[in-house]
Design a protein that fits this description.
Strand content: under 5%
Distance between the termini: 35 Å
Helix content: over 70%
Largest sheet: none
Shape: elongated
Structural class: mainly alpha
């Protein structure tokens, strides 16, 4: 059991590091002058600059909880919520037939001379990691809670003489 808790703590810490990096990329990009920042996001219809700022702050807050928090359930739930939100955003892009690479890292990909397709693929891999890891951790936490409740109920059940 302790090994599983350790694995989940490693996952939440690594997720916190990944989210810190993507948040910083978004926040730095949102302060830039690229023309795309003034274009409306296809889902929210507000400028990419505002989307980057809001999402960057949400990612940074989640990263802070994952890196410095002590409540494993809260960390895992936040990660699952955020990853699910990103998944729904990506599905909404597909739904509206938007096929351009996600600009999830803002201008940072351009500054690092990484193609938009490569950056998009990397973000899909990170999304998969966050989704699989957070839901696996949620299921494990749920199973542990059920196990504790079963043991508690069993220990409170009076033993009937034969």
């Amino acid at each position: 059991m302790k090994a599983n808790v350790g694995a989940i703590r490693i996952f939440t810490f690594s997720a916190g590091l990944l989210l810190s990096a993507t948040a910083i990329a978004k926040l730095i990009s949102s302060a830039g002058v690229a023309k795309i920042l003034e274009q409306p996001d296809p889902i929210f219809s507000i400028s990419f600059r505002h989307v980057f700022w809001v999402v960057g702050m949400i990612e940074l807050t989640t990263a802070f909880v994952c890196l410095f928090g002590r409540q494993l359930q809260l960390q895992v739930r936040l990660l699952a919520w955020l990853a699910t939100s990103f998944l729904f955003y990506r599905l909404a892009l597909i739904w509206i037939d938007y096929h351009r690479p996600c600009r999830c890292l803002g201008n940072l990909a351009d500054d690092l001379h990484v193609s938009p397709q490569t950056a998009d693929a990397a973000m899909k891999i990170i999304l998969g990691y966050l989704l699989v890891g957070s839901y696996a951790a949620l299921i494990w936490c749920w199973l542990q809670k059920r196990k504790r409740e079963t043991i508690k109920v069993a220990s409170q059940t009076p033993i009937m003489p034969a």
